[in-house]
Amino acid sequence: MPTVTFGEAIRQAYEEEMTRDKDVFLIGEDVGRWGSLYRSSRGLLEKFGTDQLKDTPISEAALAGCGVGAAAMGMRPIVEIMYIDFISIAMDQIVNHAAKWHQLSNGRVKLPIVFKTQGGAGRRNSSQHSQSLENWFVNIPGLITVMPSTPYDVKGLLKSAIRDDNPVMFIEHKSLYFDKGEVPAEEYLIPLGLADVKRSGEDLTIIATSWMVTFALKAAALLQQEGISCEVIDPRTLWPLDQQTLITSVQKTGLCMVVTEAPAEGGWSGEASAVVHEHCFGALKKPVRRHCGMRTGIPYGPSLEFDCIPSVNSIAAAARDLLGKPAAH
Amino acid sequence: MPTVTFGEAIRQAYEEEMTRDKDVFLIGEDVGRWGSLYRSSRGLLEKFGTDQLKDTPISEAALAGCGVGAAAMGMRPIVEIMYIDFISIAMDQIVNHAAKWHQLSNGRVKLPIVFKTQGGAGRRNSSQHSQSLENWFVNIPGLITVMPSTPYDVKGLLKSAIRDDNPVMFIEHKSLYFDKGEVPAEEYLIPLGLADVKRSGEDLTIIATSWMVTFALKAAALLQQEGISCEVIDPRTLWPLDQQTLITSVQKTGLCMVVTEAPAEGGWSGEASAVVHEHCFGALKKPVRRHCGMRTGIPYGPSLEFDCIPSVNSIAAAARDLLGKPAAH
Amino acid sequence: MNELKEFYAQMLLLRLFDQQCMDLKKKDLIYSGYHPYEGQEAVAVGFCAALQPDDVLLSTHRPHCHAVAKGCSLEAVLTEMMGRRTGCSGGLGGAMQFIAVENHFYCGSVVGSNLGLATGFGLAMKQRQSGQVCMCVFGDGASNHGTFHEAMNLAAIWKLPVVFVCENNQFAEAMPVKEFVACERISMRARGYGLEEITVDGNDVEESRRAANTAIELCRKGQGPVLIEAVTYRIRGHYVGDPEATYRNPAEVVEARKYEPLVRTKKKLLDGGCDPAELEAMQLAISDKLATLEQWAIQQEFPTLECAVDHVGIALANAPQVRGPLATSI
Amino acid sequence: MNELKEFYAQMLLLRLFDQQCMDLKKKDLIYSGYHPYEGQEAVAVGFCAALQPDDVLLSTHRPHCHAVAKGCSLEAVLTEMMGRRTGCSGGLGGAMQFIAVENHFYCGSVVGSNLGLATGFGLAMKQRQSGQVCMCVFGDGASNHGTFHEAMNLAAIWKLPVVFVCENNQFAEAMPVKEFVACERISMRARGYGLEEITVDGNDVEESRRAANTAIELCRKGQGPVLIEAVTYRIRGHYVGDPEATYRNPAEVVEARKYEPLVRTKKKLLDGGCDPAELEAMQLAISDKLATLEQWAIQQEFPTLECAVDHVGIALANAPQVRGPLATSI
Ligand SMILES: Cc1ncc(C[n+]2csc(CCOP(=O)(O)OP(=O)(O)O)c2C)c(N)n1
Ligand SMILES: Cc1ncc(C[n+]2csc(CCOP(=O)(O)OP(=O)(O)O)c2C)c(N)n1
Ligand SMILES: [Mg+2]
Ligand SMILES: [Mg+2]
Question: ipTM score here?
């Protein structure tokens, strides 16, 4: 199977979907000429032209609104907001309009729109360019929220998101674009709303999202050497949540840790913890542990930001603690 | 003790604080001439003039930004966003600036600003005017989030919020403005970050927020007649959360229900559930129950919206179910 | 003259319909905020007269007369405002926000948002070369919103077929346009987007109609967008029973009544030789029709909870359903 | 002539400082996006020369030269960009966002937000009759943002002492102003806020200085706000190594170099009889100073995690602490 980067997998998804359906278009700042900040749409302007690759002024509110209007007309816009931090400018269009119009039209208007953005730390971008705001959307009826962690997943999920008739929040991670992974040459789709067991294990269930999945997997590999067997689950879609996969796992392991980059308080980790606790009360040997980003703005600098979010070592340490095993030395 | 409405208690807080400190000012749409949508600043323009009561154009982003700038200069603005649904327009100023500047200035800039708004259903305002978006703010480091439920609380908490040097999200409920309650004639403050036990009980802890507190109290009264004793806790401040009061209660009762108007998924109920579960694992006889608003846009009409959010009866029914008692008839 | 009479009939319908709604609001049969339209009828009628049925109209929190002028049935609009299943949005939207897909009519209660949305409708039309235009009506208050600026610029650089109509009724709630809009005429903002400055007398239905026509023609030729300020006056409070005394002198309203579109059009018709009896008969006929409508409307059913929950989202393939247990926390 | 020489010295400092930063970025000693300022120095120097120390300057994601021109020490600005504790923001902010309170300097990396913030600074100044002004610099790209519109209108209706300076460097990332701003000159937007249209040659430091002076005087007299478009050119890519070929012809840059402020000012100085040797000595002195600065900067400490966590919020009275266990989920 070919090995490609996360960014290239996105580009392939765009290319395939834009070829299949001329109503699919990408709209955002420098998505055309530059091919997007992380080059995930490079080369597409030449191939698809300005009808399908639309560079826009710095007008996040209008471009989100533009997407909603076009979707109501039956087009299939992908609205790119360059950093999730700037989605703060387009919340009205997403929350009050995209999420509401299907219901408001009594089911007659479909909103096949994808809001695509990237969040998180790890690229030394400081506090106004590094936030993890995904849980804002999970609490909004009418929205689907997707956070892929691998090249394979991002391609399959993005294609499904583009084809879905609901508004989808599609949140990438800035530190994943250059990660590599196998992506089949043949076309495939991954259904929205299905979790993926990234690693099977017996002793502990780790539910991790986005970039944290890669950390959790590394921690699991490390712990394996110590005889600890972790199951790592990537929900992939935060809502609708594939509760069953989580429940089945925790019913087996009896221990659960939720790892997110966002701070715990008010974040999605609380949702995951509550769901597991509600459904696995008898099976849980200890409370679900939340291992999350610090409650701080992401600081600047060569490495300080890494101290504010979970790391491979901190995840491993938390896992040992949960299992009552001595700390590694 | 004088009995006043929730709206009048707010007015008193404004009046006292504006008298005490000329740097305190209220800025928003029709806060002056009209005295705010729910009349909570009526009569103040005449008394304090346009320096302290500032009517603005319909420019939520600019007026939130205006508040942040003025606060950085040492003023103490109260920025009113008429409906929480429109705070979607001002999220950048709140999240990327107000919440960040203290840290970004290495602790040198203080941001003594209150963002005041109202949310929730119950006044038949339909889906773009009835949302419960409070959990957005709980996940943002640097913000304090307050949701009062009584005239006494709203006055004491608002005065503290105005005097606090952190940015505070102060979220009222549109269905509470005409509720009446006792408010002392003498000045008082309620510290931010303290929960209040609104009713003591032995069998079950109900954690409810905002309008839901009044529903929970009525449900508790109803259940009392059936011999069920509920403790009702109002966290009042969603962050920083007074975990101890919650924990002490659940350690006593062994059963806990969280009631919010917002949908469960991604909402603050998950946070509360996780906190209780993390700290009361041994004491809990059953999983924490979340009893929350439906995952739907709030529909229009004379009564349909009430079917989409918890009610006195639904809370009572959920409580009975949790306690394994037969349903009332 | 025939056209003017037709306009008069339509404006009269809107006037009486609006009054009926005010009345229903007082009787608590309209449930949310209700924003009267009295005095602004020439804008709705004049501008909508220039639209084709498949052109799109985006309106505001004060939408009911725009909706009727756009071709939505009185039944659908009235029962939507009364929250019944026969309403445009099945009674789920209400008096400030509803969608009538077949009539290509959309409105919403967040001020200013429709300008951004309009660019998307325009973009789809342009890209598909459908020949449609999108008309976006908004208030003087909305013209201070950031979306106004972003949408105007976006529509202008892309030459979208959008007619932006600023219905300047002199007030945004209690805020007089003179104090809250920094320029003399809102149309002066057009130059900032490379567009012509166009102001029309929004109380003159024929002038409004002509301006709309020209604008729509330009848009259909690919020479859009167009921004038009239609100057009118809000005769009623922002909503029924608002504290009017806090922001305007009653004398101002008395004066404005002299120039409101029905008074003016009627005078013109009579001066032109129209028989007063004909106009009276017209009024009676409309009143009768509306009375019958109300009788019917009051008997319509309300939507059930299922109706609401049914349309939160569309079920996904191979995944937990969007509708169903997950949709309902209660 | 003396003033011009002084301006030249300042612009030269900014030029060499900027080049040094580009170099540090390449060496990975500046960590975030770094946006070069080359070619725009006359704006920073000309406009800041008119400010008093306690006037406020709000800048952008391209702030380092504005900061120095506003009076922040080179030490504080450079080490902020290098993430050291001696930086303006203690090294917590970085190259696109920092605050130097004593210098009344603020910048941030969300395009357009500073316009709204500026109204608050202006409001406080006006209300306190402090005699200060707030200058807000933003790009041509930012002029398409909704906050531009809202802030201009708000400042105008309240007559706030704010000088809005649109530093039009012809590009917003890869977006040429000609294609993304719908009007011919950005200053044409002024009329939409009842303001005068003012465009200056932003490569002419004296003209910039004069325009700034006039604007500031107006603001101090209560006749603000003022919007000025300063036309200049971004000689470098948006950031070091951006794919320039996708959006401009290299010939355009070659041409622009002929009109950049240092070239022009130097010619004017020499034409006026200034000794070339003097200018060369000036350059050598600055280079020396910057080299020493870098040596020092590189030795400065990074902030610790405590520094970051310390300032997330201010501890509350009688309540769970904002700092402390609750602040740290890890
Ligand atoms: C974003 C937003 N802010 C505030 C409101 C509250 N509000 C409803 S109508 C209105 C006035 C609108 O004025 P204008 O645009 O002139 O329209 P008009 O009411 O005069 O038709 C306001 C402020 C809102 N609905 N949306
Ligand atoms: C709200 C927002 N949208 C997008 C960006 C990404 N971005 C950073 S700089 C920039 C271009 C800004 O152009 P302009 O305002 O002309 O300033 P210049 O870079 O030319 O100095 C963009 C789009 C951002 N930082 N903030
Ligand atoms: Mg108006
Ligand atoms: Mg620029």
Answer: 0.98
pLDDT band per the 50, 70, 90 thresholds, residue D319: low
Distance of CA A220 to the CA centre of its chain: 21
CA distance C243 to B38: 12
Domain ranges, residue C152: 2-318
Q: Is D19 within 8 Å of D38 (Cβ atoms)?
A: yes
At residue D94 the predicted structure's pLDDT band, cuts being 50, 70 and 90, is very high
Q: Is C173 left (phi over 0), alpha (psi -120 to 50) or beta?
A: left
A142 vs D315 pLDDT, higher one = A142
Please tell me which of the candidates A96, A289, A294 has its beta carbon nearest to residue B128.
Answer: A96
| Ligand 1 atom closest to C168 (CA) | 16
How many other CB atoms are there within 10 angstroms of residue A107's CB atom? 17
Report residue C91 as tokens: 């009674």
Q: How far is B300 from chain A (nearest CA, A)?
A: 10
Neighbours of D115 (CB within 10 A): 31
Catalytic residue among A97, A102, A129, A173: A129
Residue C199 lies inside a defined structural domain of this protein: yes
pLDDT tens by residue, chain C, 330 residues:
699 999 999 999 999 999 999 999 999 999 999 999 999 999 999 999 999 999 999 999 999 999 999 999 999 999 999 999 999 999 999 999 999 999 999 999 999 999 999 999 999 999 999 999 999 999 999 999 999 999 999 999 999 999 999 999 999 999 999 999 999 999 999 999 999 999 999 999 999 999 999 999 999 999 999 999 999 999 999 998 899 999 999 999 999 999 999 999 999 999 999 999 999 999 999 999 999 999 999 999 999 999 998 899 888 765 554 443 334 455
Q: Is the pTM of this model over 0.80?
A: yes
Q: Residue A328 has what DSSP assignment?
A: P
Alpha helices in chain B (DSSP H): 6-20, 44-52, 60-72, 91, 101-104, 135-138, 151-163, 211-225, 243-253, 268-279, 312-323
Please give the C-alpha separations between residue A318 and each of A275, B167, B274, in angstroms, as whole numbers.
Answer: 20, 33, 17
The minimum-distance atom of ligand 1 relative to the CA of C62 is: 21
Q: Enumerate residues 141 to 200 of chain B having a beta carbon within 8 A of any beta carbon in chain A.
A: 141-142
Q: Do A69 and C119 touch (CB under 8 A)?
A: yes
Flag whether D326 is in a domain. Answer: no
**All domains of chain B, ordered by start, with CATH?**
3-182 (3.40.50.970), 196-323 (3.40.50.920)
**Hey, which residues 86-125 in chain D have their CB within 8 Å of chain B?**
88-90, 92-93, 97-99, 101, 106, 108, 110, 113, 115-125
Q: What is the pLDDT of residues B53-95, one digit of tens each?
A: 999 999 999 999 999 999 999 999 999 999 999 999 999 999 9
| Type of residue numbered B110 | K
Residue D195 lies in a domain: yes
pLDDT band at D1 (very low <50, low <70, confident <90, very high): low
> Residue C313 and residue A192: Cβ atoms within 8 Å?
no
Assess contact for A65 and C138: CB atoms under 8 A: no
Q: Using alpha carbons only, what angle is made at residue A171 by residues A165 and A176, rounded to the nearest 5 degrees?
A: 135
Q: Quote the number of domains for chain D.
A: 1
Residue D317 has pLDDT above 90, yes or no: no
Tokens describing residue B280: 């009361």
Name the pairing type of β-strands D175-176 and D171-172. Answer: antiparallel
How many CB contacts within 8 angstroms connect chain A with chain B? 161
Instruction: Sheet with D105-107: list strands edge to edge.
Output: D99-100, D105-107, D56-59, D134-139, D162-168, D226-231, D199-201
How far is residue C186 from each of residues A102, C66, C144, C165, measured CA to CA in Å? 34, 21, 9, 11
Alpha-carbon radius of gyration of chain A:
20
Residue C46 lies in a domain: yes
Tell me how close the Cα of C211 comes to any Cα of chain D, in angstroms: 21
Q: CATH number of the domain that C171 lies in?
A: 3.40.50.970
In this structure, what token pair is assigned to residue D174?
């890869």
